[in-house]
Write a structure and sequence with these properties.
Rossmann fold, 272 residues, 7 strands, binds S-adenosylmethionine, alpha/beta, single chain, transferase, 10 helices
Length: 272
């Protein structure tokens, strides 16, 4: 990606900064089995981490690459559950520092490492990792093919790669595309077939392509409820102006997502 785009994405996440506490450090959606599933928001987000993680086929001692790792919350959970080592990359300097703090707090120093690196131009030798994950990060890519080719390169033959996508579930106006782009979401695919074809062109076999749009849609209402409940405390801690700006931006973005953005999960293998 161009330096300018990386800087924009990095600044976007640097600006969110400590507000990740609102969602327990999970910069991804939640997962509910059905309308009857009453799991609280935080639990639903952690559940998604494990649903996605289960598709990686991780074995003890393996090395996982987490492309677009946020503040390392998913990496910490997966390292604890599967006893693997994880290297995460992000283009937010704030996230690198916060991730290190969380890793130490979780007692995982040395097992989970986060570094500043661009997914489209990764600083790793070929076949460095046993598995790879791009959890709600590929939507930020301007050139998705390039990200996928880079993941393919750094993954060992036979290794698994799971990525998630934010597809459009209805036509988007130019204005709506601009709102998504301002929130680092570029070119939402229309179908699972579209993302499958991209992954196959990068050299992967796609072994499962799942549409979880209805399982995650409650995320947005849950987020608004959390923001309403915690907004005054956040304003007290981080300043009323910052919280008002954040609330305005995220309300516009998440109202759009609730109406027109779904969720896809693709499980891939690099052929041996
Ligand atoms: C929506 S957050 C998801 C974070 C994390 N996977 C999670 O589930 O909590 C998107 C992440 O992708 C990262 N990202 C976006 N563009 C990137 C790039 N070019 N290279 C590396 N990371 C990138 C962002 O810095 C951010 O950490």
């Amino acid at each position: 990606m161009s330096e300018q785009v990386i800087d924009q994405v990095g600044e976007y996440y640097d600006d969110i900064g400590e507000l990740v506490e609102l969602v327990g450090g999970n910069l991804h959606v939640g997962y509910w089995e059905s309308d009857e599933d009453r799991a609280p928001f935080l639990e639903a987000m952690q559940r998604l981490t494990f649903e996605v993680g289960a598709r990686l086929g991780l074995e003890r001692g393996q090395h996982l690459l987490d492309v677009g790792c946020g503040v390392g919350e998913p990496a910490v959970r997966l390292a604890q559950r599967y006893a693997v080592a994880i290297t995460g990359i992000t283009v937010s300097h704030w996230q690198v520092a916060e991730s290190a703090r969380r890793v130490i707090a979780a007692g995982l120093r040395g097992r989970v490492i986060t570094r500043y690196a661009d997914a489209a131009d990764q600083p790793f030798p070929d076949a460095s990792f046993d598995a790879a994950l791009a959890f709600d990060s590929l939507p930020s890519a301007q050139d998705k093919s390039r990200w996928l080719r880079e993941v393919h390169r750094v993954l060992r033959p036979g290794g698994r790669f799971v990525f998630t996508e934010y597809p459009r579930t209805a036509e988007l106006t130019d204005g709506e595309r601009a709102i998504l782009a301002a929130n680092t979401i570029h070119t939402p695919p229309a179908t699972l077939a579209e993302s499958t074809a991209l992954a196959e062109t990068a050299g992967f076999d796609v072994v499962a392509a799942e549409d979880w749009s209805e399982r995650v849609r409650r995320t947005y209402d849950e987020f608004f409820a959390a923001l309403t409940a915690q907004g005054p405390a956040l304003a007290e801690e981080y300043g009323a102006e910052r919280i008002a700006m954040f609330t305005t931006g995220i309300t516009t973005m998440f109202s759009l997502c609730r109406a027109k953005i779904g969720y896809h999960v693709l499980t891939c293998v690099k052929p041996a």
